[in-house]
Amino acid sequence: MLAAGEFVDADGRPWTGDEEYQPHTFIWFHRELRAEPPVPFTETILYRDDRIVVADKPHFLSTIPRGRHVLESLVVRLRNRLDLPELGPAHRLDRLTAGVVLLTTQKRWRGAYQSLFERRVVHKTYRAIAPFGPALEFPLHLGGHIAKRRGSLQAELIADAPDNASTWLDLVERRGDWAEYRLIPHTGRTHQLRIQLNALGLPIVGDPLYPQVLDISIDDFTVPLRLLAESLEFVDPIDGAVRRFASDRRLDWPTTDAPRS
Fold first, then answer.
1. In whole angstroms, what separates CA 140 from the centre of its chain?
2. To the nearest 10°, the Cα dihedral for 206, 71, 91, 79?
3. For a designed S-S bond to 70, which of 65, 191, 205, 224 qualifies (C-beta 3.0 to 4.6 A apart)?
């Protein structure tokens, strides 16, 4: 990369490696990217104005460029598609989760909309398909203390620790051994909905992490996690309008019987 002139200074001048050391100097380069298999599902635009874009993200598409997903991320796709180089998310949605994502068109708007999520004044609903829990009475409040340790793929529930996660769970529909649930989270811990349902003995269909970590290729797009960010509702911090956006996606029901414990 150095020989090819791919290390440049702030003026775009290639460096050769023979330069004398210069303190407080930034040198720029782009790391080589792997050939990313395209995610074979397409995002849709639910709403767009001068400040925000609301997208309906498919399963398997990262919200932001990270790790092994750069070009195949929602932000990069939409920056190119909409010609909005400053487009960025106001919050994040897991790569495996589909549904509604709020983005801002320019950096100057980002703080105002991000603060809605930081202050927990956005009303969010999710849908999930998991085994039916016949012994449960709905609606049901789910709590617990969730922690994510560095280097671990899974988050965990910590016993005898104060609650830091809160979700309301309700039954929407039952089909045999399976059920569709509505979840209303009041906090946003890592993997919160996935770990809380798994703790009930109701792991979400297609989850490669809970109850156990499965050895599945990161480029395997065959079995989606049946978790959908169904809707967002908030008061616009700029003009005071009440805004609500809902996904057009639906979760596919499994065709096999639920596992028996």
1. 24
2. -140
3. 65
